[in-house]
Amino acid sequence: MANAIILDERDNVATAIADIRQGETVQAAGRSVVTVEDIPFGHKVALRPLANGDVILKYGESIGLALGDIAEGACVHVHNVDSQRGRGDKGAA
After folding, report:
1. Residue 55 belongs to domain spanning
2. CATH number of the CATH domain containing 42
3. Is the sign of the CA dihedral 63, 69, 73, 78 positive or negative?
4. Closest CA relative to residue 20, chosen from 6, 34, 8
5. In a domain, 90, yes or no
6. Residue 93: inside a domain
């Protein structure tokens, strides 16, 4: 049974639809990865290693940039992503 969802085949993260414990396998859309830390419900998990500055893809679109290297199976959230959406300090002047 799936414990995460992938919203677009281009996504490099999956979204947890339940709390996922470290060492559990995330399964979604025929892909799987073992978590290296706990992934809380609603947070994202890296489906592959991400390097500092890599684009984070969810919905098949960029939701931000990696703030450092992110291991496959690691939690992807506000602590390691520079959001490019809804920022009041970026955009048209």
Report:
1. 4-83
2. 2.30.130.110
3. negative
4. 34
5. no
6. no
Q: Can you read off the two tokens belonging to residue 12? A: 């490099």
Alpha helix (H) ranges present in the chain? none
The total number of structural domains that make up the chain: 1
Instruction: Report pTM.
Output: 0.87
Please give the backbone phi and psi of residue 20, each rounded to the nearest 5 degrees, phi first. -120, 130
List of residues 6+ apart from 45 with CB closer than 8 A: 4, 13, 14, 15, 16, 20, 26, 33, 35, 39, 73, 74, 75, 76
Contact 56, 13 (CB under 8 A): yes
pLDDT in tens, 18-29: 999 999 999 888
Structural domain includes residue 25: yes
